Amino acid sequence: MNASEAAYQQTLDYLYSFVDYSLKKSSELAKASFNLERMYTLLAALGQPQNRYPAIHVAGTKGKGSVCALCASALRAAGHRTGLYISPHLQDFAERIQVNGQPIPHTTLTTLVEEIKPVVAGIASLTFFEITTALAFLYFARQGVDAAVIEVGLGGRLDATNVITPRVSVITSLSYDHMAVLGNTLSAIAAEKAGIIKERIPVVSAPQPDEALTVLERIAAERHAPLTLVGRDVHFRALEHSLDGQRLQIEAPVSLPLRIPLLGRHQVVNAVTAWAALRASGLKVPSEAIQAGFADVVWPCRFEVARRQPPLVLDSAHNVDSFEKLSQTLADYFPTYPVTLIFGCSEDKNMAAMLAALKGQLKRVLATRAAHPRAVDPQAIVVVAGQLGIPAEVVTPVEAALRHALALAEEEQTLILSAGSMFVTAEVKTAWQTFQNASSP
365 is in which domain, residue-wise? Predict the structure, then answer.
């Protein structure tokens, strides 16, 4: 390891020395003290970098990352220097903070962190995510971005990103997740997500269950925020799909054909939501740029077909709703393949319902766990799978699970699917890349 990479690792050690609620168990998360005062204090000390460029702010249970990626790709295609802030990362922390599709250089991150350390030292109880968010805002300002796309970390109302005044607030598909923090009903979850809606700032929503929509409509009305609802105010049709991508047509309020490389019916909805967000933002993004940006978007581990024969699919589904969508996507693209599922999940997930959503498609489950403190014991996965009548075995670590799945796939012509945890799938992706590099001449 060279000196700059050693310094980068020391920088990450420093950042992770602060409390990271994404690594906490749900019982600890429920007791967390979330507020925005620390964030306001930190940003004031840094010169309010978040106010130096227009932003699109995206919350939701599922689809928010895809909508962010689509918006950022279209903004870049329109010639805007574009910041993108996402979480978590897949393989490298620097993926969280991007300008024009390029992660922040390791040396730049190290320099920025050294610069803000004295400020951080003067503010009690700052968290990992608060500091990371401030670093993103500061980097975007220093880079002179024309626009930024900001993904909410958790919830919305008290999320560290909720200190910006965006051009548009976006709410993607809402479903049950992180209930220990956000509430046990869709209306409670919707209220937390709708916390990003600002006074008189346009809001765009994906189609929602009635219980969630009622809350979004009420809060938007209270804040005099004009609401655009996909499916009601924006009409569209899915046209055709293949492993090379999907075509869709926006029919009203304008007519516009679009193509996306992202697979799954839910990605059509995400694309229309991103189109509506760009339109509501008032940023100059011609239709041609949206078409080009959407066609070129890259968003890994969202039904990513890493190999076609026998198929290897990397997916980030990690709640019941997303597993139901995953089941539909498997049926649409690989209807005849029995599935070997490499599965791990966090301890707060409803793994029985997740596995049940795929039951008719599964040949077996390889229960594993990522290097993550909230990862559930793989033996517990085997027990639940057995109760559902699904053959299962423990294979750890994740790399060994992939190696075993690859051997089975060659023998049986089964599809390998990684899902249940973004952290597991990230490790599968890294292992697959390592295997590929090792086999290259």
Answer: 304-439
Tell me: do 309 and 291 sit in the same domain.
Answer: no
Give the three-state DSSP class for 190: helix
Q: CA-to-CA distance for 79 and 85, rounded, in angstroms? A: 18
Please indicate, yes or no, whether residues 278 and 372 belong to a single structural domain of this protein.
no
Return d(Cα 305, Cα 263) in angstroms, integer: 9
Mean pLDDT of 427-440: 91
Instruction: Verify that 37 and 170 share a domain, yes or no.
Output: yes
User: Which of 30-44, 60-74, 112-126, 227-241 has the least mean pLDDT?
Assistant: 30-44
pLDDT tens across 352-407, in order?
999 999 999 999 999 999 988 889 999 999 999 999 999 999 999 999 999 999 99
With 0-12 / 13-18 / 19 or more C-beta atoms within 10 angstroms meaning exposed / middle / buried, residue 336 is: exposed
Angle between the N-to-C axes of helices 265-281 and 320-333, in degrees from 0 to 180, rounded to the nearest 10? 110
Write out the two tokens for 441: 């001449």
Q: Report the predicted TM-score, pTM, of the whole model to 2 decimal places.
A: 0.94
- Do 101 and 164 share a domain, yes or no? yes
User: 44 to each of 11, 85, 165, 179, 252, how far by Cα in Å?
Assistant: 23, 20, 15, 32, 43
